[in-house]
Fold each of these.
Amino acid sequence: MALIWGSSFLFTELSLQLTTFFGVAFWRTALGGIAMVLVGIALKQAFPKTASQVFHLWIAGLLMSAIPFSLFSYAQQSTTSILAAIIGAATPMFTLLAILVIYRTERITANILLGLAIGFVGVSITLAAWQGFGDNDPIAILALLAATVSYGIGAPYIRKHVTPMQLPGVTTAAVQVSTSALTLLPVYLLTGPLFVAEPRVETVGALLALGVLGSGFAYSLFHGVIAKAGSATASLVTYTNPMIASIWGVLLLSETLHWYEPVGALVIVLGVWIAQRSSGKR
């Protein structure tokens, strides 16, 4: 799961050479949904049967797929894949905030407040706040942060409303991303050309990998981790994304890794570690 999602930032960069940012979000959910539906049928696994189950999976899809996929794709039009991955690494911090403020399943402690404060300092370092936003478009940065907040709200939502369904990870992922694709389809069709360039092997391959692996199989694994270890622990997978994205970004996309980006990422990790030391929810 870490390898797939860490590579998704590379796949997004390549996919943006083929279609629009809404197109990337649509195709990755559509392809992921098709793949998981076929796997679920082949394995004869149970699919959601009630309107309530489908509704909660649709909400989970909005928070974990449709909204963040669109925002990350939009932002990566003008930011590096490395920066996108590092901001995404703040997901556990926003997951903990959501657990505290929205779901209220934990009490606020001094460790949590200190850890969250350190985490926000880490985000500021990553963005080189002393330089403003540097060469980055402020709207793109806000899109990255909004996407990360969406993930932070979505993971505990899955824990609260989807995990109790006790459905297989394959079929929950299938419905989650399929409903996202249906939601994104009219937006994709109404906001511009379906494709912006002639297809190439690498761009089509990247979009297929992004959909089948990043939005299909990875989410089936993610549901299993949430069921066994909780949303806070499941969101920790984002810690590995910057390392994997940085390797691909430097080697394959000729991106520059600034000294303050890995420093900020380490501070974010430190902050969330401190905050979760007193956390009973994993």
Amino acid sequence: MAAPIRPRRSVLFLPGANPRALEKARSLPADGLIFDLEDAVAPEGKDDARARVAAALRAGGYAPRELILRVNPLETPWGHADLEAAATLPLDAVLLPKVENAERVHLAIELLDALGAPPGLPVWCMIETPLGVLAAADIAAASPRLGALVLGTSDLTKDLRARETRDRRPLMTALGLVLLAGRAHGKAVLDGVHLDLDDAEGFAFACRQGSEFGFDGKTLIHPTQIDPANAAFSPTAEEVARARRIIAAYGEAAGAGRGAVRIDGRLVEALHVEAARRTLALVDAIAARAAG
């Protein structure tokens, strides 16, 4: 049975060392929050940030947002302690940075289980290096507990020695490969961050582009990016109306023994009905998220 659809239109990175950001996040309309102990925290502040995040999560107040903890790599001085903390916290997933092979997924899950994490606690994987992109299919297939692939486009751009362009043409191959890997194995896939906070037009373009590609949503670095991302990755009123017409018309055609029907001049088959049902399920999930 397929997992219930969960909106992941906007997933905001929160610096673990920033108490103001941790507090403000309780009132933000993001679908998900990534409590970041890795890139957003200086080495000398790692232990304090872990304690601060743990206290904030235990205090609660973040529901119904999806809560994810990005830990440091296991080979760093902080990685094991981060996983140990994650095993005891009220989380929906643990985000592993710079994943480049399936073995890293297996090891993280084994450690979480040994540390007493809740049974089945999902892991998410950052795909942010050339090796990670090339191994994305193996990573996506590593475990049923792998819940999402997250593009780390900033690190990937650096490692590719590519130029930062608004149309992201240098990243198209990587974006497509990771999306293919995720979809082939039924995983959510999140687009990378947009770093220029003064470039609202460029951010809107990146959101539209990501939505057209098929990403579930976008990772964000600032609260001002939440509303545009939510809008871009939500079905439009026209898409919802068309989905309902497709389901109704196909149902009538099937009742008459026909396997296809024309709607607005286009042929509609069973595959279009499946997509229409997913659209309506996402709309319902978004409505439930807003009500919760």
Amino acid sequence: MRSSTKFTLRDLEREIVDCRRCPRLVQWREQVARERRAAFSEERYWGRPLPGFGDPAARVLILGLAPAAHGANRTGRMFTGDRSGDFLFAALWRAGFSNQPNSSDRRDGLELTDAWISAAVRCAPPANRPTPAERDACRPWAERELTLLERATVILALGAFAWDAALRLTPPAAEVPAARRAPRPPFGHGHEVARGNRRLLGCYHPSQQNTFTGRLTEPMIDAVLGRARELARGSG
């Protein structure tokens, strides 16, 4: 970190995209970028770690699992260019967090208001399953990002993996003796828990596995986003 000037989200972005901490993830993300999917054979894949993006003054941090191999790993922006993102951005638009209901490319004009999108792991993992060690290697990026998002008081975790990562980002207050701390809150859609001066909300991940089967519907995600907005407004 530079000592002469204030460290910014842009500075953090530059560090993240240069990261090569996890050999397995580096090998996979770059292999996917070289080999490409037939439908995107003419495109140049991003093939690097993904920084978060959105409104630097956001009160709501939306935390996903990791970039999709042929989605964000291709387009260079979280949740952009795949079915999960299609579902999520349409919901963000309905809730007033986004200026448009779809996103296909990082230069498509999409802008977020009062929301920032990030992920627990910044590189596309094989089979969409990061290892615990890879999760832990990425944790410092999220910790520093959350520190720089000075107004963020609500963390919306998309799926159990992101929920667990969010709990690690917001540990119980140090002054509370371990014996008196509440049990680790379980993940569930619509679950809500206070974590210090923040609120953590759970939402099923907008994967095709959930949205195509009806496990996560538009009214369900709309309700959670509405609650996130309500909590953010209450925090000032």
